[in-house]
Amino acid sequence: MFRALLLQRTDAKTNASLVDLDEAALPAGNVDVRVDYSSLNFKDALAITGRGAIVKKWPLVPGIDLAGVVERSDDPSWKAGDRIVVNGWGIGETDWGGLAQRARLKSDWLLKLPAAYDTRQAMAIGTAGYTAALCVMALQKHGLTPDKGPVLVTGSTGGVGSVAVVLLAGLGFDVVASTGRAAETDYLRSLGAKEIIDRASLSAPGKPLQSERWAGVVDTVGSHTLANACASTKWYGAVAACGLAQGFDLPATVMPFILRGVTLYGINCVFNPNDERRRAWDLLASHLTPERLESMTHEIGLSDAISASSDLLDGRLRGRTVVDVNR
Fold first, then answer.
1. Domain harbouring 259, CATH code
2. Are the CB atoms for 94 and 53 separated by under 8 Å?
3. Which of the residues in the chain have pLDDT under 70?
4. Are 77 and 52 in contact (CB under 8 A)?
5. 30: number of CA atoms within 13 Å, CB side?
6. What is the DSSP letter of 114?
7. E strands of the chain, at which residues?
8. How far apart are CA 106 and CA 294, in angstroms?
9. 154, 161 in Cβ contact below 8 A?
10. What is the pLDDT of residue 315?
């Protein structure tokens, strides 16, 4: 038997509960993993609360992240005792995810745990940190360098935003952090932000083309915020978009793109090849120390994940939330 957070659908309503399951309930897969830690992401919170159409198969164990130890493998690439991390690949959406003490997975989804981190630290990074790394890699691929100007990070107190601030500051960029939480100014400065701005300056409808401010942008918010970020990006600058906290619409015009040559990169973190995932984790290991990671992390037990999901969606959490599935 093992403990799991299980989502079920009744009368078009999502019901989340902690249950004890037999291992016979595990889905198909060729690798069995003892889960040490998972994490709580925006997408997980939407699934658990039922506020978003995340779950595609019922019943389902949510959790788009997990880290743990291989217990059994039918694939010779993996053996009992291997420490692994899994982000994305549809777990927590179409396949059972990490908010449980056991998981059965496809071997192609597994990534060797980076030597720089233990399983808890890997989940303190999780999909949010890995996504932040993909955003930064997109800006680097574009050719963005610190001498070209400041980089804006929206939703900067969230998981993606917090890690993006650390990575960009570590690479030498002047980071401007946008937040609606003025009380978190010291926190953001501790991560490396040079300037803090109120998200209200970006979240309302704005002009289609605005004064040039940013050489690059990491946007976790979408909607008017993303539109304004694009409109105020410098000539041949780049915007990496990975979130929709404000909304999934993009009320923008083509003007920044055809008059200033701005490039908008869409960041998908779910189905990236493992080579790209390894590069992202290498970038994280180079600039995100365990000590800095701990400063943006808090831990909850599996029994706390349901209530914490509402807190996350309502903006009452900052940084990263690690879930110890064994308490």
1. 3.40.50.720
2. no
3. none
4. no
5. 11
6. P
7. 2-10, 13-21, 31-40, 65-73, 83-87, 102-105, 111-112, 151-153, 175-179, 195-198, 214-219, 233-241, 263-266, 297-301, 320-324
8. 30
9. yes
10. 86
- The pairs formed by 230-233 with CB atoms below 8 angstroms and a separation of 24 or more are 230/256, 230/257, 230/262, 230/264, 231/206, 231/207, 231/255, 231/256, 233/260, 233/262
pTM of the complete model:
0.93
C-alpha distances in Å from residue 226, one per residue of 163, 181, 230, 250, 312: 19, 19, 6, 7, 21
Q: Do 134 and 156 share a domain, yes or no? A: yes
The structure tokens listed for 7 are 């989502």
Same domain as 103, residue 76: yes
Q: Rounded CA gap, 9 and 32, in Å? A: 26
Spatial contact of 269 and 131, defined as CB atoms under 8 Å apart: yes
Residues 169 and 262 in one domain: yes
Share of the chain above pLDDT 70, in %: 100
Q: Give every CB contact of residue 28 below 8 A, 6+ residues apart in sequence.
A: 104
Per-residue CA distances from 307 to 19, 99, 108, 162, 272 (Å): 16, 14, 33, 22, 31
Task: Round to whole Å and give the CA distance between 265 and 269.
Answer: 13
Q: For the chain, what percentages of helix, strand and coil (3-state, to nearest 5) are there?
A: 35, 30, 35
pLDDT of residue 166: 97
